[in-house]
Amino acid sequence: MNSIISLWKFARPHTIIGTITSVSALFIIATSQYVSWPRAFWISLISAVTCNVFITGYNQLVDVKLDEINKPYLPLASGEMTILTGKKIVWSALIISLSTAYFLSTFFFALVLLIAAIGFLYSWKAVYLKRQHRLAAIAITLVRGFLINAGFYLYYSGHNADIGAITNPLWLLIIFVALFSLGISWFKDIPDVVGDKTEKVASLAITIGSKRAFNYGVLVVALGYTLAAFAPIFVNMNGLNLGILTIGNAIAGFIFLGMASRVKPENQESIKRFYLTFWGLFVVEYLIFAIAAI
């Protein structure tokens, strides 16, 4: 039982839940199916989740010293899990992710390989995109905003690499998640300034200060909610329910602003609580689009 709990913590549950929700919602948006879940979907979900475990797990392997300061509760940083066990999980997850992706199609394999490669470069010390906040933000936004949304949608809809097949609703989702991912990139580093300074990681919070970094994140995410709420009124949403998109995003946007108004960026516990709840809104956004597509 303890091993399962350690594995769950190692996998970073909020990212796993976000991946499962986003992939499931993209299948519904692409196919309008929510009752029948074919075998190919479940295989693609396994590939996505194990790719997620590889990326987050590899980051923990190379950042043990950093996590001992910033996130001492993580299994490797706390000593709850050995480095050897962590390596076995990470490389097994990569093998499972790529082999299941290859089983589905060449396009899907290339997509997952690219996502895994960017995740690897984010943490690999020879490149370490994480060290510079602009490159880190680009990597997170590219993966979460474009590659997952466009790639999985095109695979599920049978269009593969045909970017022209991406619909207006999907472009709206891509833009929203790209802006939301910028928020993720900036918010996640605010509680970690002590360790990041020690390891010379130039996060936005260190570069311009925690409060300004937080305000920038609030601004871009609020812009995303504004676009998601009002764009359906003026742009053809290809049959998606306009009321659900507009009202749902307006409510979610107000909830986000209410959450943000209570945060004290200089207080670690305050920003940590906000960040985990913020991931809840990530899940909610995909639910809004999926329900609108039914």
TrEMBL record:
<feature type="transmembrane region" description="Helical">
    <location>
        <begin position="213"/>
        <end position="234"/>
    </location>
</feature>
<feature type="transmembrane region" description="Helical">
    <location>
        <begin position="16"/>
        <end position="35"/>
    </location>
</feature>
<comment type="similarity">
    <text>Belongs to the UbiA prenyltransferase family.</text>
</comment>
<keyword id="KW-0472">Membrane</keyword>
<keyword id="KW-1133">Transmembrane helix</keyword>
<feature type="transmembrane region" description="Helical">
    <location>
        <begin position="41"/>
        <end position="61"/>
    </location>
</feature>
<feature type="transmembrane region" description="Helical">
    <location>
        <begin position="240"/>
        <end position="261"/>
    </location>
</feature>
<feature type="transmembrane region" description="Helical">
    <location>
        <begin position="135"/>
        <end position="156"/>
    </location>
</feature>
<feature type="transmembrane region" description="Helical">
    <location>
        <begin position="102"/>
        <end position="123"/>
    </location>
</feature>
<keyword id="KW-1003">Cell membrane</keyword>
<feature type="transmembrane region" description="Helical">
    <location>
        <begin position="168"/>
        <end position="187"/>
    </location>
</feature>
<dbReference type="Pfam" id="PF01040">
    <property type="entry name" value="UbiA"/>
</dbReference>
<dbReference type="GO" id="GO:0010176">
    <property type="term" value="F:homogentisate phytyltransferase activity"/>
</dbReference>
<protein>
    <submittedName>
        <fullName>Homogentisate phytyltransferase</fullName>
        <ecNumber>2.5.1.115</ecNumber>
    </submittedName>
</protein>
<dbReference type="InterPro" id="IPR044878">
    <property type="entry name" value="UbiA_sf"/>
</dbReference>
<keyword id="KW-0808">Transferase</keyword>
<keyword id="KW-0812">Transmembrane</keyword>
<dbReference type="InterPro" id="IPR000537">
    <property type="entry name" value="UbiA_prenyltransferase"/>
</dbReference>
<dbReference type="GO" id="GO:0016020">
    <property type="term" value="C:membrane"/>
</dbReference>
<feature type="transmembrane region" description="Helical">
    <location>
        <begin position="273"/>
        <end position="293"/>
    </location>
</feature>
